Known about the structure:
Blueprint: E1 2-3, H1 6-10, E2 21-24, E3 36-41, E4 53-55, E5 62-65, E6 71-72, E7 81-85, H2 87-100, E8 103-106, E9 110-112, E10 117-123, E11 125-128, E12 144-146, E13 157-174, E14 182-187, E15 189-201, E16 208-212, E17 221-227, E18 230-233, E19 238-242, E20 247-252, E21 255-257, E22 260-264, E23 267-272, E24 275-277, E25 284-287, E26 294-300, E27 303-305, E28 312-314, E29 318-324, E30 327-329, E31 340-345, E32 353-359, E33 362-364, E34 372-376, E35 383-386, E36 397-399, H3 401-406, E37 408-411, E38 423-424, E39 429-430, H4 433-438, E40 441-451, E41 458-461, E42 475-484, E43 497-503, E44 507-512, E45 522-526, E46 532-534, E47 540-546, E48 557-567
Parallel strand pairs: 1-2, 6-8, 7-9, 8-11, 9-12, 10-13, 11-13, 12-13, 13-14, 13-15, 14-16, 15-17, 15-18, 16-19, 17-20, 18-21, 19-22, 20-23, 21-24, 22-25, 23-26, 24-27, 25-28, 26-29, 27-30, 28-31, 29-32, 30-33, 31-34, 32-35, 34-36, 35-37
Antiparallel strand pairs: 2-3, 3-5, 4-5, 38-39, 40-48, 41-47, 42-45, 42-46, 42-48, 43-44, 43-47
Amino acid sequence: MQFETIAQLKLQPGLPSPDNSAQVLGYHVPNDGGGGFFYWDAAATDPEDGGLIFATPNSTGRWKRLYNGAVFLDWFGADNTGNTDAATQFTDAIAVLKQMGSGELVLSGTYRFDNPLTLNDLDGITISGGTAANILDITPVPTVMVFDHAPANTGCISISKFVNLNIRDISIVNNRENESTAVLELYNGYDFSLENVKILSTLGPPSIGIKLGRGTGELCAFNGILKNCRVRQVNGGTSFESNYTNTSLLFQSCYSMGGSYAINGTVYSSLVSCACDGSNTDGYIVRGSDLSNSNTLSFISCGAEACQYSGFKIESGSINIQIMSPHSGGNNKAGRTDIGDVLTLERTNTGLVESVVISTPTSAAAHTSTTANIVGGPGVGKVSVISYEPATLTKGFGGDLNWLKDWLTIISPQGSRLHNLTLSSPVRTFTLEAEYEAAGFETSYKSVSQLLQSAANEFYFYPGSPQDGYILPNSRIKGMSLRLDTDITSTDGGTIMDLIAVDAYTQRKVIYENVPMVKNTKLDLFNENGLFPVTEQNTLGFILQLRNNKTFAAGAAVTAVVYYECFHSLATLP
C-alpha cells in the first residue's frame, strides 16, 4: 500500500499478512525526503521516535522503517529547504543514534536552526553531509546548517563527553554579529575527526569558528584530526582555537580566512600545510598559562598572508616549538616597527619562550615599515634559525639586544659570510665589510682542519696557526662554519655531541647542542653581538664533546672557519 505522508501512515493500524508493508512518498508532502518503506510489527509497543518508529491509534503495533546503514535527518521531518526550524528533528535523530549505540546521521540540504544544538554523551556517532558549501564566495549549496535566527550569544553547536565522533562534509553559517561565542565547540572528549567542515561567520571579535577544549584538563579535546576544514571570519576573530591541555591534535590542510589560529597550552600536536589569510591580528598565535604550556608543537609548511601583524607569534608559556618552511606574504599590514612580519617572540610574564626552531623561513612583500623579519623581545630564550637565506629573509633579525647576543643562533647553508649579512642593533647597522672598517672595526676569519688522533671524550681544534697567528685579544666571534669531513663515531655508544667554545680554559660556552655525527654535516652559526668573546691572546679553541662521558673513536676529522671582529685600538668593544 502507498501513502502520501507519514501522517496518513499513522492512521493505518497495519495491513493483513502477508501484505504488511507500505511505501510513504514524503514526511509532510511527497518528495520532501522523509518518505520510505515501512513494515508493520503487530506486537511492537516501542515508543515513537519521530523517524524510524511510528505508532497508530492502537496501543499495540508499530510501523517501522526499512533501512540499512545511515539515518537521514529528513526522515524525522526536518525541512531541508531552510524555511523552518529543524532543531527538534535534529536532536530527535541524535537521540535515536545514541539509543542504537552508534551510527551515522546524514544531512542533505539547507537546515535552519532557531536554537543552538547542545549535544553530549556521543559514542561512535558520525554526522555527515553531501557536498559542503563553498564558503569562500559565501554561496550556500547542499548540506548547510544555518543559525542566523538563534538567540543572541548562544553559540551554534556545542558537543561534549564524546568518543569516536566524526563530523564531515558540513557547512555552518552564522550571520549574527558582535557575539563572543563559538560556532562549533568540542570539549571533554577524545578520538574525533572533523573533515571538510566549513564555517562562515560574521560574529566578529572575539568570536571563534572551531573551538577545541574549554581550558582545563578534564574538559580538553584529545586525539583528534581536523582535515580540509575552512573558517571564514568576515569581521575578524579566531578561526581555530585549541585550548589548554588539548593533546595529540593534527590540523591538516586547514584554511583560515579573516581570522587567526590560537594555540593555547596545547601539547604534542601539529599543523601541516595550513594557511591563514587576512587575519585581523597575527596569523598563528602560540601561548601557554599556569594550566599548561604549549609544548612540543610543530608547524610544517604553513603560510600566513596579509595579516595585520606577524605571520607567527609565540608568547609566554611556549616550549619546544618547531616551525618548518613557513611562508610570510604581505604581513604586518599595520606597519609596526617593533614586530617581525614572519615571526615575533614575546615574553610578557613568568612563562618561558624556549627551544624554538624555525627552518627555511621565507618572506615576501612585507610592509615597508617592517624593520626585521624575525624579532625577539626581552626574556625570550633559545631560538635557532636553520637554513637562513638572506635572499628570502631580506630584513633579517631584530629585537632585544641581549636576546640577539645570547640566545639567537643562525645557521645558513652558504656559510657565515659576515660581511654579506645585514647586522642590526639599536646602536648601528652594518651591511658591508667596508662599513665595519670605516667605523674602526676589522672583520677577518681564520680556519682550521683537525684530525682526532686518539680516542677521547673531547675533540679540540683551534682556528689559526703558529705561522699565521691566532685570533687577537679583545675580539668578538661573530660566526663560524663547521663541517664534518668524516662520520664521527663512538667507542661506547655515544650519540649526542655538543659544540663548545673555550678561552684558555677560563670560559666555556655551549654554542650548539646535539650536532649530527654524520659526514658532510655543516653548521653555519651567526650572532650579531658575538657567539663568544675572546679576552686572552692565542687561546681561542672549540670542542666537540660527547655527552654522558662517552668516547670518540680516533680518526674523526673536521674543518672550521671562524669569523671574528676586532677593534684596531684593542680597546674594549662597545
